Amino acid sequence: LPLPAPRRIKALAQDVVNKIAAGEIIVAPVHALKELIENAVDAGSTALEVLVKDGGLKLLQITDNGHGIDKEDMPILCERFTTSKLKAFEDLTSIGTYGFRGEALASISHIAHLSVTTRTKESSCAWRAQYADGKLVSSKPGQSAEPKPIAGRPGTQITVEDLFYNVQSRRRAFRSSSEEYAKILDMVGRYAVHCSKVAFSCKKHGDNNSGISVPATATIVDRIRQIHGNTVANELVTINAQNDRWGFECQGCISNANYSAKRTTFLLFINHRSVESAVIKKAIEQTYAMFLPKGGHPFIYLSLDIDPARVDVNVHPTKREVHFLNEDEIIAHVCDEIRDSLGKVDTSRSFMTQS
Ligand code: ADP
Ligand code: MG
What cellular component GO annotations does this protein have (predicted)? Predict the structure, then answer.
């Protein structure tokens, strides 16, 4: 017999709603990590360490030396929509920081074991707290859930353990931890290239020589060299473009016509947030097509600053996708600039071989 069609509408339990929302923001460990990196950078950190176990499913830990979190704020830190970065809806148009909705830590606390150790400059000690489902919880049964004083340096350490422990379907979807670790390295590498003056390290637990290590003093080219190798770092040109009419500025470090790879490497930052854009990537690849051998692809690091009033970062919970006004015009400007600098390099080369 067919089951009777359900027809009565019922409200989902709050914890189900929270887990669904969390699963939309954090699909894989790398998404949790991206939020944590952005928080650390927002906090003014100049050094950032990432430690990973099992592709981030067992452990994802990020330690920064930023301004820390006040002990008084710790009880509401992981509640949904608690933030120090946004007060009015209008602020979305001038937002300079990465985070703004106060959803990241809340989400993580619904699908992982989360603990936070933090110390501000003003505090005489660090404070450690554990969270579950948005709230402080005690680490041992019978103990108080209040933050506990411990010794520690200024800054914040966020420890995420057993990600998706309570979302079995998601957990089962992960085949290999090395695939997840590769995504994590890719993301840390992006921010390590972009955030000049910030030191980055990323390590697999128990493996000291894998991963990323970039000192705070490294230049952008040094950073690219560390992470992407000499071959590309030796063939880079910088580009700059700016236009008041479309309200944008762009800086980039891109491979010249001597460099050609099987696949495009595209590090794109819009208003200092790592994002993806198939449209921009395609336009740039087409620009390169006339300079590279057939099947050859470039390396592109591009940082676009667009007047925040013209950008809508709020299109998707993950903030991976960003929309802005006059996208076509801005892309055309950037591609013109790329064409110019690739052309210049070419002339100087042929000039040199002629003489
Ligand atoms: P959002 O970044 O959107 O504000 P989050 O859930 O990511 O929301 O973080 C909530 C708040 O916790 C932030 O507004 C910030 O005040 C604080 N916070 C989170 N991570 C850090 C950190 N590494 N250092 C200092 N403060 C932090
Ligand atoms: Mg955030």
Answer: MutLalpha complex
Do 68 and 196 share a domain, yes or no?
yes
pLDDT in tens, 226-284: 999 999 999 999 999 999 988 899 999 999 999 999 999 999 998 888 988 889 999 99
Decide which of 179, 214, 249 is a domain's last residue: 214
CA nearest ligand 1 atom 5, residue = 102
pTM of the full structure? 0.90
Provide the phi-psi class of 343: left if phi over 0, else alpha when psi is between -120 and 50, else beta.
alpha
Residues 57 and 198 in one domain: yes
Residue bearing the CA closest to ligand 1, atom 19: 39
Cα–Cα distance, 300 to 269 (Å, whole number): 11
- Cα 224 to ligand 1 centroid, rounded to whole Å: 28
Cα(105) to ligand 2 centroid in Å equals 7
Query: What tokens appear for 237 in the block?
Result: 């040109």
Q: Which residues line ligand 1 (CB under 6 A)?
A: 35, 39-40, 43, 64, 66-69, 77, 83-85, 99-106, 156
Report ipTM (2 d.p.).
Answer: 0.98
Reported as a single tens digit per residue, the pLDDT across 22-73 is: 877 788 999 999 999 999 998 999 999 999 999 999 999 999 999 999 999 9
Q: How remote is the CA of residue 83 from the centroid of ligand 2, in Å?
A: 8
Domain shared by 164 and 271, yes or no: no
Protein residue with least CA distance to atom 13, ligand 1: 83
Whether 325 and 184 share a structural domain? no
Does 25 lie in the same domain as 173?
yes
Q: Residues 177, 256: one domain?
A: no
Q: How far apart are CA 214 and CA 201, in angstroms?
A: 6
Distance CA 78, CA 114 (A): 10
**8-state DSSP, 292:** S
What is the CATH number for 265? 3.30.230.10
**pLDDT tens figures, 294-340:** 999 999 999 999 887 777 665 555 556 677 888 899 999 999 999 99
How many angstroms does the Cα of residue 178 sit away from the middle of ligand 1? 28
